[in-house]
Amino acid sequence: MGTGVKIFLYKAYKNISTSLWLIPVLCVLVGMGISFATIALDRANDYQLLPASLVGGPEAAVAILTTVAGSMVNLAVLVLTIVLVVVQLAMGHFSPRIVQRLLRDRPSQFAIGLFVATFVHTLLAIREVDPDGGGGRGQVPGAAIVVTFLLALVSIAVLVVYIHHIGRALRVSALVEIAGDQTRQQVDRMYPQADEQDVDPAAI
């Protein structure tokens, strides 16, 4: 393999691994997997895995899933808006290196990924709700509904933690620390120091 190809593959790997969209896309795939698994579990139990008193009827299930889906879209848009505002502030007042670090912020990526994954899960679960199914009783994917409740609760907790995180990240001291960490990492790569284990004790 030529040097040019290696350089191209390395740059592609770095761009993908540090991109804003990689973790959200992986979370979407996880959300699809969770939805398919819960739907398969409901189908295997003829949609009678959980009682109607716990998950509600078809109308309630549709209302719950629709509300959660809309809320997750709004939360994902909120996080993306916060990221864009922070990037604009950094571009106007700080170093471009800080902008790159903010775009690679893992908590932001995980928050967006969780919200989008929950949205995808609810969309797939809505298809399984059938008011005329189940011998006239209605068909409700109980396991998918319960997982939707859990994902919604986790999303609320993640939103609170993310707001706390982004508030701390916007402090001047935190931004200066980001620039300092990147500078030290670059210096360590350019001027690697000898490991203490490699030092000859007789030379001390």
Structure explained in plain terms:
The chain has 204 residues and is an all-alpha fold. The protein has one domain (16-184). 75% of the residues lie in helices and 0% in strands. It is built from 8 helices and no strands. Helix 4 packs antiparallel against helix 6 (106-126). The radius of gyration is 24 Å and the shape is elongated. 25% of the residues are buried. The mean pLDDT is 80.
Alpha-carbon distance between the two ends: 44 Å
The description of the largest β-sheet is: none
Order of helices and strands: HHHHHHHH
Number of helices: 8
Rg from Cα: 24 Å
Shape assignment? elongated
Q: pLDDT under 50 segments (min length 5)?
A: none
Approximate strand percentage: under 5%
Helix fraction bin? over 70%
Mean pLDDT: 80
Structural class: mainly alpha
Domain tally: 1
Extended strand count: 0
Short description:
The chain is an all-alpha fold and about 200 residues long.
